[in-house]
Structures are given as structure tokens and as C-alpha cells.
Amino acid sequence: MTPVELSRTVLRAVRSAVEDGELDVVVPSRAVVTPPGPGGSGDYATNIALRLAREAGRPPRDVAEILRARLCRADGVADVLVSGPGFLNVHLADDLATSALVRRIRADGERYGYSEECAGDEPVLLRVPFDVRAEVVADSLVRIIASQGGRVEVAHGEPATLRPVPAAEDPAPLGGDASRWALLHPAGHDRPRITAEHLVQRESNPLFRVRYAHARTCALARAGARLHLAPEPGDTAQTDARPLLRALAEYPHALAHAARHRAPDRLARHLVGTADAFLAVQHTVLPLGDEKPSAAHRARLALAEAAGTVLAGGLSLLGISAPVHL
Fold this sequence. Notes:
Number of helices: 10
Number of strands: 6
Shape: flat
Oligomer: single chain
Distance between the termini: 32 Å
Strand content: 5-15%
Order of helices and strands: HEEHHEEHEHEHHHHH
Largest sheet: 4 strands, antiparallel
Helix content: 40-55%
């Protein structure tokens, strides 16, 4: 279950409570779902009960308990706990959550995370100065905002509506992919560092880790084929895969934030986190030694395939290639 799907599940719980007469509120158009904060637990948390409490005329924890009972009955939800003043902490059912997430990514391909959130909005006008970084950021935002159903018009001149801090040096000597990463990975208010570090093939280089992780997913797919091991979504039987599952589930949220805040750096940083989470478990995907292929291996291979899909899709939106060999 992705954050978007869980958000819809939360809204269904609110609507059900309203229809049953337990809550007297207007059902909101959106429920914010995030990783749990300090003192929280589970896979995701939402503050929907706190948002509705004043309108409902009830304490937030009472609202939370009403919604908790409905959320616990939802498919893919293992348990829901109430913490603090009324936060709902949602624990997903691991096997159902993993299988559903991977199946969704396999079905959507590189369009996973796309939405119609910006559809119907007025076209976004990006007026940029004549600066290479502003040009590259605008170019990426055209694709990122389009992935959310929006449309962008780019113009040059003043006053600029998109003015990231310019690079102190010409990034062209780094080459296409590395120069784009050097300009897109830092936040817009940070000055990009144009150095050869973006070209080195080692762990200290975030771009290398992202592209290497994608290449590794492709290598695992080839090795799995040689073993006649077909990927099949299911329970990976791995607790250490949870960071990767969370990163994949949160990818649509990262895309939406990058579009909403005109910040491709948010997407770039999410790809780094996804790559690191995958690289931490890549050695568990295929059977080792005399270990026989199992359903868990097929599920891990499907999870690796899903990670590769997300990495390739995200890099494509940034205008960066995703090599299958590295």
C-alpha cells in the first residue's frame, strides 16, 4: 500500500464515520500520510483526527479511536495505534503490503508515481534568467510537473519566478549526466559544487550510487534468468527490506512534492535514499551457495526489479540516463 492509497483509505474511514453518524464533519479532500515522527510507531502516521477534532466538537483522541476502528478493518492494514494527542500510527500487513506495492510498480512501469494532482490547474509559468542552472532546473520541472498532470510554460526574462543559486563554474566539462546531477541534486538555495567528484565511481558519489544501484537491479534480473528464477511479487521474508519498501512506497509522494515545490532536488535525494536501501539488501536477492531457489527469492527479485523501475523512472524525469551496465 502506497502513501497515496493509504491516504484514500483514511478518507474512506472518515466518510464511513460521517455516514454512520459518528462524526459530523465535512470529509476533507486530502489526508496527509507521513512516516511516523518521534514517539510514533508503525509504517505511516496521519494527523487527520487532530484536523477534524475542532469541527467535530470532540477531543482528538476520541476522533482517532473512531477512525482507528475502521482503519483496522481495511485491507492491507495490520494494526493502528493512537499516540500523543491523537496521531494514528498505521502498521501495514507486510506480505500484503509488499505484494501489492510491487505489483503496482510492475503494472505502471516507469509511470509509477504519476498522478493527476495538478490536472486542471492553470499552466505553471516558469520565468527564468539566462543561466545554465535555471535552464536545467526548468527543463526537469517540465517533466516532473507533467508527471502530476500539470503543464509548464518556460520563458526568459525578469522578474524571474525560478532563480536557483547559479553555479560558480561551467558544469559542461562534467558531461551531460554528471553536470545535470551537479545542478539538480543541491537544493535551489545552495550553490552547486562543480568538481570531478561527480565523475568518480565510488560510494562517496551519490550519482554513482543511484546509477550503480539501477545497473545492479538489471544484473540481478539477468542472473535470475540464468537460474530460471522468475520474479514473483510476494513476501520477501526480510525485515531489513523495510527501508527499501518504504522508499518505493513514498516515491509518488516525493514526485508530488518535487512538482508542488518546484524542487527537483527532492526527487534526486529520494533516489539516493532508494538506491542506498536497495544496495543494503542486494546480496540477499539470489540464492547463495547451495541454497535452493524459493518463493522468497522470487519475491526479492521482483522487489529488486521494482527498485530498478523507480530508479530509472526518477532519473529519466531528471534527464539523466540509467545504464544497465556499470
